[in-house]
Amino acid sequence: MTGRDGTGLDGNEMVLNMGPQHPSTHGVLRIVLKLDGERVKSTDCIIGYLHRGVEKIAENRTYTQFAPYVDRMDYLAAVSNGLGYCLAVEKLLNAVATPRAQAVRVILTELNRIASHLLWLGTHALDIGAITPLFYTLREREAVLKIFENYCGARLTTHAFRIGGLQYELYEGFEQEVEAFCGQFLPKVDEYEELLSGNRIWRERLRGVGIIDAETCKRYGVTGPVLRAAGVGWDLRKAQPYSGYEQYEFAVPVRTGGDTLDRYFVRLDEMRESVRIIRQAVANIPAGPIMAKVPKVIKPAVGEAYVSIEAPKGELGYFIVSDGSTQPYRLRVRPPSFVNLQALDHMAKGALVADVVAIIGTIDIVLGEVDR
Question: Mind listing the pLDDT tens digit for each residue in 188-240?
Fold first, then answer.
C-alpha cells in the first residue's frame, strides 16, 4: 500500500482522513493522518475549502468598501481584523486616530479578545469531553456581544471602526455596561479554573500533549498564545505598541512547557489581563472627536505599508500597496491561524489520534482566516 506522499506503508500503518466535516477540526479542514496503530506518524493539512478570494476582492473595491470584508476572515475576532486594516490604511495616509477613538478601539478590541478566548475555551473543553464549560463561556460571551450590538448593531461580524477613527459615538451607559461586565467576568474565570484546572482527566488529556519549543515556534513563525506558552514573551501590544497600548499597565502571560495545558493557562491569564486593560481605558476615555481629518475619498499616495497587531490568535498583519488610486493595487494578509497551523505536524507527531483533537483546539484556528 502506498501513502499519499508516495511512501510505502507496512502492515501496521494506515492513512486516515480527519475532516473536512469532522466537528473537532473547527471548520472545513481536512487532515490526512498517517498512523501506526493509534500513533500519528505524520499529518498533512488540506485547506482551501473556504477560500473566498478576499485579497483579490480588495483590488476591486475602494479602501472604504473593502473594510467590512476583513470582518469575515476571523469571524470570531472581527473587531481585531478591522483595527489592523484601518491602521494599515491610516499609515498610508499618514493619519492617526484621535485619542478618544484610540481608547474606544482598545476597549472594543480587548472585549473581542475575551469573546474569542471564551468561545475557544468552551469548544476546546467540549472536544476533550467536558460539556458544562461551553454553557458557562457562552453565557459570558453573550454579555460581550450585547455590548457590540448596542454599539454598532452587529454581534458577530462587528464592523466597529472607520478609517481614521470610529463608526459611531459611544451610546449612553457604555462605560457603565463595560465596567459591570468586567466586575462580573473575573470571578467567572476563577469558576472555569475550578471546573477544569484541578480536574485529573483534564490535566491528563492536556499535559505533555502537542509540545512545541520556542526555537521551533520561531522557525515556523508561530505567534500568539502558542508562542508565549513556549516561553517567549512576545506580544505586539508591548513590543510594537499601537492605538495607545503603551499607556496601559498589563502583563504578558508566559509559560514554559509549550504543551496544550500551558496554552490553556496562557489564554486564561490573557482574559484577566484584558479586563485590566479595559478598566484602565474606560476610566480614561478622553473627550473630543471620534474621527481624525481624513479625506472623504480615500486616495493614498503611491507607496506601501505593513501594519501588524496582536490579534487573539497571534500576529495579524496587513500589507497594502497603493498606486495612488482609490483602490489598493495589492493587499496581502498575514493571518495567525494560517501560519500557526503549519506547526500542527510537528506538534502531532508521536501523539495519539485523540490527542490530535486537543492539539487542533489549542492552536485555535478559524478556517475563514486560514483560507481567506
Answer: 999 988 888 888 998 888 898 889 999 999 999 999 899 999 989 898 999 99
- The total of structural domains in the chain comes to 1
139, part of any domain: yes
- pTM of structure: 0.90
In tens, the pLDDT along 231-261 reads 898 989 999 999 989 999 999 999 988 888 9
CATH assignment at residue 220: 1.10.645.10
In a domain, 367, yes or no: yes
Q: 1-19, pLDDT tens digit by residue? A: 444 455 555 667 888 888 7
Closest C-alpha among 215, 210, 211, 235 to residue 225: 235
Predicted confidence at residue 9, as pLDDT, reads 53
Query: Does any domain span residue 164?
Result: yes
Domain assignment present for residue 69? The answer is yes
**Full residue range of the structural domain in which residue 68 is found:** 59-371
SS3 (DSSP) at 336: helix
